[in-house]
Amino acid sequence: MSVSFLTPRAALVGLSVLVPLAAFVLVEWRAARVRSQMRLAGPSLLSRLPLLAALLAVAGLVALASAQPLLERSQTRYERTDAAAYVVLDTSRSMLAAEGVRKPTRFARAKQAALALRAAIPDVPVGLASMTDRILPHVFPTLETDVFKATLQRSLGIERPPPSSASDIRTTDYGSLSALANQNFFPPGRKRRLVLVLTDGESIPLVASYLRELYFTGPHIRTIFVRFWSETERVYRKGKPEPRYRPDPASGTQISHVATTMGGKLFSEARLRDAIRAERAFVGDGLKIKVKSDRRPMALAPFSVLAAIFPLGFLLWRRNL
In this structure, how many other beta carbons lie within 10 angstroms of the beta carbon of residue 256? Predict the structure, then answer.
């Protein structure tokens, strides 16, 4: 942990305290003369100290804020060399479904789950991808959780980019998951490969046997599906349910078949903790290498300015007495 200053010379602004300090001395000198002529006792030195201390505190804190101090904390990070994962979010239009107009959508809930799944394996590089009838990688496996979070919040959106065919509200094609196995999405040498699919399960029909062959050829890719779905959810537009969309009760059977055929596991969003446990169990323990010391700066200037409010308030209070 260390402290540095971005603009140390700006601390000279603290010398501005000399002006009110000189005024204070002048006022006290004049008051002492008047009291001497009138033969009155003056206030004790102890009663003047709080005023002087508050004045010096304001000057010191403002000078500190002007110097822009930064507190830097170093944290050594380690990376697993045998494991990597992808979080894949379904961005089809049906993921806009929610229990009500002001209730969180399936997509919003899936994004929160993505953060929890990422946080559960901090030493494993994790990538981020979106899925409709194709897979689009947004972040390749990395330890940078800030990059993962920023991309999740700012870059992913429903049908962004749009699917190849926009004629149906259901455009999810789990066949697109084949790209994760045959297009070098994973770093080489990673034997433990994990794909976490966050979806509502409503997709076009699929024969998943060829996906199993792909995922079991070469380095085995393990899959975990987390399903966000309820039969009472609707897709709302301008506060009204879209008549074209109805939750598909058969989607549960279909996604269960896909997960089983691919040798993966399926969890409902209510069982997210179980999904996290399965994720950790698959990743397990492995060889780690020291990557770097991560330095995280924190600006202290706002705290210094905030602290200056208290002695300044005391000065104003004394003035009004």
Answer: 14
For residue 227, give the nearest of 249, 194, 205 by alpha carbon.
Answer: 249
CA–CA separation, 182 and 178 (whole Å): 6
The candidate with the shortest Cα–Cα distance to 156, out of 120, 115, 195, is 115
Beta strands in 143-287 (DSSP E): 192-199, 221-227, 236-237, 240-241, 265-268
Alpha-carbon span 223 to 86, nearest angstrom: 10
Q: What is the pTM of this model?
A: 0.73
- C-beta atoms surrounding 185 within 10 Å: 19
39: which DSSP letter? T
Token pair 């792909």 is at which residue? 214
**pLDDT above 70: residue 67:** yes
Average pLDDT, the chain: 86
3-state secondary structure (DSSP) of residue 211:
helix
Confidence of residue 219 (pLDDT cuts 50, 70, 90): confident
Nearest to 221 by CA among 249, 183, 267: 183
Instruction: Give the C-alpha separation, 197 to 174, whole Å.
Output: 10
Dig out the tokens for 31 from the structure: 């008051």
- What proportion of the chain, given as a percentage, has pLDDT over 70? 87
Which distant-in-sequence residues (6+ apart) come within 8 Å of 245 by Cβ? 93, 94, 97, 169, 234, 235
